[in-house]
Amino acid sequence: MKKLYSALKYILLLSVAAVLLWASFRGVHWKDFTDGLRSADFYWIGASMLASVVAFWLRALRWRLVMMPLGFKIKKGDAWDGINIGYITNFAVPRAGEFARCGVITKKTGLPFETVAGTVVLERSVDLLSLVLVTMAVLFFQWDKFGAFVNREIITAVTNRMSVNLAWITAAVVFASGVFLYIVYHFRKTNPVFRKIANIAKGVINGVVSGFKMPQKWMFLIYTAAIWFCYWLMSYTTILAFPAVHGLGASDALFLMMVGGFGWVIPVQGGIGAYHFIISLALASIYSIDQTTGVVFATISHESQAVTMLLFGTISLISFYFKKKGTYPN
Known about the structure:
With 330 residues, the protein is mainly alpha-helical. The chain is built from 13 helices and no strands.
């Protein structure tokens, strides 16, 4: 039954990606699309891919920093392999990459999987907060330019489709979660299932708490800022690579980075379809750029990042399986 559920979930998410991809490419002529791809300056695409590699390395260093208080001096190479293997795993099963990279560190160090997962929870929470802050900054300083898109395509679209008051949904979820947590806590000593859930929760909490004990908190913030600068650089170099959007500037790159970030967050395999749809929609709504040009830009941007993730993910997989085991003291 569990395998059937996993297969159905995989097929459903893949179907969502296919529908979004179809919606993005609908009405686009193949010749116009290929001509657009050929017009790109691949030196700038190479620069964008290089920026993404730097972002991967910075993410590995930042994650290692969070894990340091757990008691092992995590090797930079293992954190790097974990990040890359996580990326390539997301192309197979959405969001499974976070579990995969925890597995890399657990395999290398013997640390509890749940505790390592707690460090990922902390790190991803910071990333989500960063995306929210970037979004707020972009909208605050340039609401006249980008506010209409957010209001029309996101806020209005969501509120028009809501048949139940959001406050009641939130209250129901909070109440149900509270009841579940109380049951788990109350029966954790007598029920093996609840005991396991409690142990997992304890491990995750320990991992999160360890992050707050990191000795170089300022370095964590510096790494985070540098990572998001690389994301902006990836967006801006892609603009420079594509002659049809050369009129866009640094602030436009920031906006597209923000919108693209939401495309990657949507739980479909590797952001496929979701990224293409939201970027082409943003280009059409804000800049009145035609669909073909928007799809070509989104494809160049997404596929350059996807190729980088798949390439370095494959290298890290090979490295992980052939590296000498037992490199950490017991």
